[in-house]
Structures are given as structure tokens and as C-alpha cells.
Amino acid sequence: MQATAARPRFLARILLPALTVLLLAGAPPAPVFGAEPDWSTYNALLQQYVSARTVNGTAIHFVNYGGLRSDPRWPAVVRSVETHAVTGLSPAQKLAFYINAYNILAINMIVQNYPVSTINALNQGSLTVWKRPAGNIGGRSLSLDDIEHSIIRPMGDARIHFAVVCASLSCPDLRREAYTASRLHAQLDDQARRFLSNPGKGLRVEGNVVHVTKLFEWFAEDFTRAAGSVEAFVRRYVTDLPAGAQVRTDIPYLWNLNGA
């Protein structure tokens, strides 16, 4: 009885490791993703040159573009985006990278042409600032529209509209830290909550009417795809809206520069 019982255990000790090796040999290799840039210099600049202020009664993150223009570290941040290898990034790494890239290149357009009162002053005839070449990434010349509409939006996360910043007062606030893959979900949720808690540019309630940013009109398709409707998306982050509220995308969008 003892010898018979011992034989299966002996065979298991021999066969199970061999079986494991065979299974692993036939399994597809685990994906190997690229690396994100070192955002430490960008983070330091955001901490130094972006601050909370109130402009015309609206709370914003105010950007000191003049300070960035004169800081020798800024060109290195732009180079870190333009020279980074973008192949092999995981979906989260890719989304975080291109949100940062959009914001950095939008800032850089202001810095290169400073002083300006609005980013729209950088239009060149019929070529809008959004379609002008903004930088080279992965060997490609990209405009801000290319990054937003051809790369970021197709990734399918409507919260990006609270993260990409067009250097204007009514834009979502420039976050005072870089987006990273490991924290991206929490960062995007935080951006949405912060923006929709700002009555000057995100959302305000007057009786049964909910006034919201024009972003919900311009990108209604994205928000509807994410939640079924603009109102349903808003209610994810603002849970105490009146029942049967009328949602109106009529908060004026101010294109004045979000800094000086």
C-alpha cells in the first residue's frame, strides 16, 4: 500500500515540471512594452510656472509663459518629447505620452511666439494654429489636430477632453504634473471632477438648468459613446444634479491666453 501510494507522487514530481516547460514553450510570449520619458524636468517646470489664480472671477491654473520662455530647461522638455521612441508603448503609456506631448507642444507654440494674447493669434492665413506643424514625433511632423484627432481621440477615452489643454482660459486646467501610465485612470478622473466643479468654465446649476462647457457640444459624439448621452456622462462626476435637468452647452468659451 505504501509503495503504491508513493508511485503517483513520484511521477507527479517528475512529470509536472516537464509539462509546465512544454506549456510555457507553446505559450505566446508576454508583451514587452516600451518606456515612458523621464518627466522629472517637466514636472519641476509645471510646479514652478503653473499656479492657481482667479481671473475675471474664474479659478484657473495660470501659466507663466514668460518664465518658461527664459528657462533653459524648457527646450530640453520639448526635445524629450520629439526624440522619444514611441513604438512599443502600451495603450496607457501611449495615451499618457500623447496627452503630455499635446500640452507641451501647445505651450511651446506660445513660448516661441511670446507675447501673444490668444493661441488663435498664431493662425497663418487660412492655416489655423491647430493645423500648423507643432513638432516632430516618431519621425513625423504633427499638428495639434493630428495629435488630438488622429491619435488621442481614437483611443476611445472621452476624459481626454479634460486633459488636453489649448492654452486658453476656458480650457481645462493644465495639470501641475505629467500624466503617467500607472496613474492615468486616476489622473483623468480627477481632471474631469475638477473641471466639472468649476462653475466659471465647466458646469454650473441654475434651478433646473445645468449649464456646461462647449466641449460637450463640440465632442458630443465622444461623450455619448462613453456614457450613452452627455447628461449621463456628466452625472458620473456630478451626482447631485436635479432630476429631469435641462443640460445646455452654453457657458461662453473664452480663448484668451490662460497665462501671461
Structure description:
This protein has 260 residues and is α+β, with helices and mostly antiparallel strands. It has one domain (40-248). It is 44% helix and 12% strand. The chain contains 10 helices and 7 strands. The protein has helices at residues 2-26, 40-49, 65-70, 74-82, 91-113, 144-152, 184-196, 215-218, 220-227, 230-237, and strands spanning 50-55, 58-63, 133-137, 140-143, 203-206, 209-212, 246-248. The strands form 3 sheets. Strands 5-6-7 form a 3-stranded mixed beta sheet, with no helix packed on it. A two-stranded antiparallel ribbon has the order 1-2. A two-stranded antiparallel ribbon has the order 3-4. Strand 3 and strand 4 form a beta hairpin. Helix 5 packs antiparallel against helix 6 and helix 9 (220-227) packs across helix 10. The longest helix is centred in the first third of the chain and has 25 residues, at 2-26. The chain is globular. The N and C termini lie far apart (88 Å).
Features of the shown structure:
about 260 residues; alpha+beta; 3-stranded mixed beta sheet; two-stranded antiparallel ribbon; disordered N terminus
